[in-house]
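WARN no homologs supplied; continuing
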Amino acid sequence: MMDSHCVGESEGLTFYIARPKDYDDVMAISQDIYEGNDYLPHRYHFWMTEPDRLVFIARRVSKLVALESSLIVDGGETVVVEGLRVCPSERGRGLAGVIQRFVDGYLKKTYPSLKKKRITRQNVPGAENMANFTFLARRAVLSLHGNSESLDDFVTYLMGKLDASDGSNTRHPLVTGQIKQNALMPVLLDPELPSRLQLPGGAIIQDWQPLKIIESNFEILARQNLSWFVDGFIEKPLFVSFHTPPYPVPLNGGSVRLNIDMFGTDVSQAKRALTAHLNTVKGEIKCAVVIHIFMHQSLWEDLRQFCEGHDGVKQWREYWEQLFLERDI
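OK structure emitted
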């Protein structure tokens, strides 16, 4: 009798909807992914029960060889692809294309309203993988690394820099502080917000997950328990940011990852927001931490200089970018 979680076969592979019991097999093909920054060990079990998400695995005979996750967003019109990975021994053989073709076909049958497929990448895909994709936007990323002992002092160090510069830059009020997402709904639904904040591709990107600013997507954001900060112009903000709660990653035998997403181009607000986010989470972090700050390209060099000079928290990677791509499905 066929496994009830089996959803089809194609090109020598059998495809299944992933289950909690597949966790160890998935981790076995995930070694050294994202330079130790892989989110999947932490998120896999949450994905198993998340609404409107399907996680597909591919097996060759009994061996798990590939995975792709699909989240239906934008009121059923868009699928966001995440977590795509192939077993190391099978890479370079076109398996990523096989699982993507199968999943695209399955989703089109299951969700007839789907129109678009969206992905975010940290590198430029090859010409074959770029076929039919439209480039929507890019964000600069500043990556820092430190430990729990140095993070508190680093926040104090940044606060000192802010105090020293406040007298020369008083154009905008300080970041007002942490705000509940439901209080932000009218602000986020303002049709002028995307242009005012220069949102990438007109979307809010939360930890690699691009979402149109429509009411049906707010539930997806609310699941992440985000901490939001907004500048002093609360009804017409010029800067909005949030961070995802720190989560464990395999880096250096066990670290935590903190992702901060910034929207807007005001440098002074970016510095204040970064300091506020780090000050909020410093007490939660008990080990080594890698911090990724996603931002408009124009902010990167100023934030790099703002963060440099501390002995305990240092730049972890050179300048890199997050790319946002889309195609019809």
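The mean pLDDT is 92.
OK
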